[in-house]
């Protein structure tokens, strides 16, 4: 997701796999302000993962997976886009991560109660059925003290402005957006509760001047909510 084009600019819409396959080559270098904003908030919610089993669902180019593996976590990372996973595998430290190509809109190929941390970051807006997704996130999370599901997404307020995951190919200048679902905050909350998760944290984060200074494409959204974050405890935790 990026705020890289004016909201009223008509853009071709690509399917999720095609869109991210095209985006993969330059995803990490295109000045996207949303991952930069997320980095301020999500790592603290994940906490110390050394020695823990972590599932990164919709891992993209491995932003979180590689960092957590370097911190001593045992990481399994899934993504729909084979080219995003290729980019992740090229990063230093990625050799210790188990990568799987999988559509996260389908049942996850992972065992029940197998992970201490389950991440789903900046991808849920591409999944139409949030109830099914959250059910799977809850299913694979261990019902242990300290275990958690952490979800981040583009804030629904941005989509009300007509902004969704979009990119510009730096070689050709061609722009496109990726197929997305216009979920509301209440949809995320309802899906989490329906999966039996106990919500521990919900926050909404706007673009500020510091972010806009570092990421010029965020300038037009200063003061506007860009990021939604949730942390929840798994069913059965005591």
Describe the overall structure.
By secondary structure, this protein is α/β, with parallel strands linked by helices. It has a single domain, classed as Rossmann fold. The protein is built from 9 helices and 10 strands. The protein has helices spanning 16-23, 33-38, 42-46, 63-70, 82-89, 130-140, 156-160, 185-194, 209-214; strands at 13-14, 53-57, 74-79, 98-101, 117-121, 148-154, 166-168, 175-178, 198-206, 225-233. The chain has a 7-stranded mixed beta sheet with strand order 4-3-2-5-6-10-9, with helices on both faces. It has a 3-stranded mixed beta sheet with strand order 1-8-7, covered by helices on one side. Strand 5 (117-121), helix 6 and strand 6 (148-154) form a beta-alpha-beta unit. Helix 6 crosses helix 8 (185-194). The termini are far apart. The model is unreliable at 1-8 (pLDDT under 50).
Structural class: alpha/beta
Give, in spatial order, the strands making up the sheet with the most strands.
4-3-2-5-6-10-9
Q: Runs with pLDDT <50, length 5+?
A: 1-8
Helix content: 25-40%
Order of helices and strands: EHHHEHEHEEHEHEEHEHE
Count of DSSP H/I helices: 9
Q: What's this model, at a glance?
A:
By secondary structure, the chain is α/β, with parallel strands linked by helices. The protein has one domain (13-233): Vaccinia Virus protein VP39 (Rossmann fold), CATH 3.40.50.150.
């Amino acid at each position: 997701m990026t705020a890289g084009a004016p909201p009223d600019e008509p853009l071709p819409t690509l399917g999720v796999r095609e869109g991210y396959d095209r985006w993969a080559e330059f995803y990490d270098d295109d000045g996207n302000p949303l991952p930069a904003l997320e980095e301020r908030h999500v790592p603290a919610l994940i906490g110390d993962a050394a020695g823990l089993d972590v599932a990164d669902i919709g891992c993209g180019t491995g932003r979180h997976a590689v960092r957590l593996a370097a911190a001593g976590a045992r990481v399994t990372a899934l993504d729909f886009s084979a080219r995003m996973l290729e980019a992740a595998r090229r990063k230093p430290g990625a050799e210790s991560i188990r990568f799987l190509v999988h559509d996260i809109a389908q049942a996850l190929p992972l065992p029940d109660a197998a992970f201490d941390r389950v991440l789903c970051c900046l991808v849920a807006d591409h999944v139409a059925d949030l109830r099914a997704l959250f059910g799977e996130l809850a299913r694979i999370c261990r019902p242990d003290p300290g275990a958690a599901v952490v979800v981040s997404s583009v804030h629904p307020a941005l989509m009300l402005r007509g902004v969704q995951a979009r990119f510009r190919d730096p070689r050709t200048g061609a722009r496109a957006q990726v197929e997305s679902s216009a979920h509301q905050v209440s949809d995320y909350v309802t899906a989490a509760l329906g999966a039996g998760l106990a919500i521990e944290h919900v926050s909404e984060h706007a673009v500020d001047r510091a972010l806009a200074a570092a990421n010029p494409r965020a300038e037009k959204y200063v003061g506007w909510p860009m990021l939604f974050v949730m942390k929840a405890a798994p069913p059965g935790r005591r």
